[in-house]
Amino acid sequence: MFVPARAMRALGEKSEQFRRSLADNAASRKEYEAAWERLSHLRAAEVEERLGGVPWPGARPCAELDRRGWVIRFEPEWKTAQEARDWALDTLRGVPTVAVDGSQVPPSKEFSVPVALVQVSWFENYHDPDRPYVKDVRNDVILPGDEDGQISAFGDSRLSQRRFVMEMETAVERIESLAAEGSASLPGILFIDGTFVLSFAGRMAPDVRQTYLQAIFSLLAASERHRVPVIGYVDLSFASDLTSMVREIEDLPDGNVVDAQMVATSLPPFDRTPAFQCARGDVLPFYVTEDHDYSRDLCFLYMTTGLDRYPARIDFPRWMLEEEGLLDRVLDVVRAEIVVGAGYPYPIETADAAAVLTGEDRMAFYRLFHDFAQAQGLHTSLPAKSISKAHRR
Question: Quick check: 236 and 310 in contact, CB under 8 A?
């Protein structure tokens, strides 16, 4: 049981340590903010020179830095929320936006057959009064023997792997659908909830890592082939690519400061940093295939999405920088979806709501499986307690 009074007493005993930790963090953040400001007069070539040939400094500047500077201002100024919404609706008119997300139901140890479910949803909005939006899901049931037959022993990791692959497969399908529609200006934008730089994969066994990377490569390849922009959106990012770059240049101690903290004070709402190439050494050395080097193709920037909020991280493929004005048009659509979503991109929020599987959904799936097994004459040895619980909920 949890006793709040005892927990509060334990917290109180550590109050001085909390104060010291907060003071240390604040000092480190100020040090990095000052260093970021000192670098703000440099051009891209000067940054590279100061990096001194470090192969993976965390981040590298792109040519946009020389054209636009270290802070890129957002021009429109709204006086009211209605003005912001009017701008957003006008910006989105006729531009399809799609988001993909996933969820899963793990196998239960109470069941003799460890059946699991993966679900991926997508939300597609054409912003056209003559075309209704599309919200749909696809499912995959995973049994022993699937995923190398290790679902029982490694359920969570195997399910997460299958879920990620399904998300990317669905995203590629949506890109191909958008491309088939055709558009003279912007064929549409696909949102992914998360980054394209899969640091966790760098710590995985080679075969598992390759499964994740091939899935993300398929997304990046489809985006470039069909010229459909893709955005990886991270609302609260703990990445430290820019702080790693600053630390290399300024020879700073590791202050446990993340990018969003360092750049926050220089970015009013909807202003952004220029694009940077991600140069993270933990996983990007693996972003190479026989046909293509993706390790240099991933770019990112930070953009503030509201008052008293850390900037969001936005990932995108380098090809989007190569088409004149494309990134600006895409980011205006991202801003518009954030306005409509009251601080968070509406397509991602809607896809997430469609994808999520609650505890009640989990029990409904187990009940469905039980009924299916009975109808098929399968002997699954389901425990009576679980059957009763599933049918009551």
Answer: yes
Q: Give me the residue label for tokens 């398929």.
A: 218
CB contact set of 17 (below 8 Å; sequence gap of 6+): none
**Residue-wise pLDDT tens digits, 234-262:** 999 999 999 999 999 999 998 889 999 99
User: Token pair for residue 69?
Assistant: 């500077």
Alpha carbons within 13 angstroms on the beta-carbon side of residue 223 total: 27
Report the C-alpha gap between 85 and 132 in whole angstroms: 20
Query: Domains of the chain: which residue ranges?
Result: 4-357, 360-392
Tell me the helices (H) and strands (E) count for the chain, helix number first: 14, 9
Please say whether the beta carbons of 241 and 300 come within 8 A: yes
CB 275 within 8 A of CB 64: yes
Q: Is the pLDDT of residue 100 over 80?
A: yes
Give per-residue pLDDT as tens, 3-30: 999 889 988 888 899 898 888 888 899 9
Alpha helices by DSSP H, the chain: 4-13, 15-39, 44-51, 64-68, 81-92, 155-181, 206-226, 241-250, 259-263, 319-322, 326-340, 346-355, 359-376, 384-392
Predicted confidence (pLDDT) per residue in 171-204, tens digit = 999 999 999 887 656 789 999 999 999 999 989 9
Distance, CA of 7 to CA of 2 (rounded, Å): 8
Instruction: Say yes or no to pLDDT of 148 above 50.
Output: no
Q: Are 194 and 155 a contacting pair, CB within 8 Å? A: no
Separation between Cα atoms, residue 238 and residue 297, nearest integer Å: 21
- Write down the pTM of the prediction: 0.90
